[in-house]
Amino acid sequence: MKLQGKTALVTGSDSGIGQAIATLFAEQGADVAVIYHTDRAGADQTAAKIASFGRRAVVLQGDVGDPSSVKRIFGEVTAQLGRLDILVNDAGVGAGGAEVAELDDAQLETVIRTDLFGPLYCCREFVKLRREAGGGGRIVTISSVAQHLPTPESAPYGMAKAALGSLTRSLSREVANDKINVNNIAPGLIQTPMTQKRLDDPDAREKSMSVIPWHRPGQPEEIARLALFLASDDGDYVTGQTWTIDGGLSMQWGGA
């Protein structure tokens, strides 16, 4: 097992990609802290999956956009699990339907604070913990292919995701001497509760599939397998990178 004896904290692990990552990590031997914002039922479902592999699960509610909440979460996780080896930043919110000129301040604040400040706050706490432990560790952040592509009527989301790529590069240099790997995954259209409405609409689905060379949505488990590689010793020589996994979507734009 690739993560035997490790502990991981996965934000947004109550559903979708985060749930798939938490489950696979447990299958590979890790104890996992399941962090959720509002979906307690989904978090409990994830915890049950983790327990089915004989691993420990800690379920905690929190807001990654609130630094005091993040500090509390990390304190409780280390108190209950004893240590923390892996951080996966998955929590995020989508936003769309408003041009920059029409953006509401509250919506802008929510997206940037959750999708950008949240991972930053979590990375800050994780690095402090790992340095106290003598170094080592893995950070995997889930951004989006939107960090590479224009996002009309969803500029704050694209801005935040692009910034995560920059954060990954900068942080990887800062913590290289601590032997903390820092990497980023940029998924394309993945079948999750956040995207299900679009995929259930025949016209919207056809439009989406027409620009994806693989002509299908990705599955959360596919992202989880890449996260496992980056979180395990298999990815030890990889740091500061963004891994795009989108069925060829970002390549299609060059030929349109």
List the helices and strands and how they pair.
Elements lengths: L6 E5 L4 H12 L3 E6 L3 H13 L4 E5 L5 H15 L4 E4 L15 H28 L5 E5 L12 H20 L6 E7 L8 H5 L1 H9 L9 H12 L10 E4 L3 H7 L1
Parallel strand pairs: 1-2, 1-4, 2-3, 4-5, 5-6, 6-7
Sum this structure up briefly.
By secondary structure, the protein is an alpha/beta fold.
What is the arithmetic mean of pLDDT? 95
CATH architecture identity:
3-Layer(aba) Sandwich
Determine the fraction of residues in helical runs and give it as a percent range: 40-55%
Q: Strand arrangement, largest sheet?
A: 3-2-1-4-5-6-7
- The number of domains: 1
Which stretches are low in confidence, meaning pLDDT under 50 for 5 or more residues running? none
CATH homologous superfamily descriptor? NAD(P)-binding Rossmann-like Domain
Q: List the helices and strands in order.
A: EHEHEHEHEHEHHHEH
Tell me the radius of gyration.
18 Å
Number of strands: 7
Structure classification: alpha/beta
Largest sheet entry: 7 strands, parallel
Count the helices. How many? 9
Alpha-carbon distance between the termini? 43 Å
Determine and state the CATH class: Alpha Beta
Q: Overall 3D geometry?
A: globular
Within the CATH hierarchy, at the fold level, what is the topology? Rossmann fold
Share of β-strand residues: 5-15%
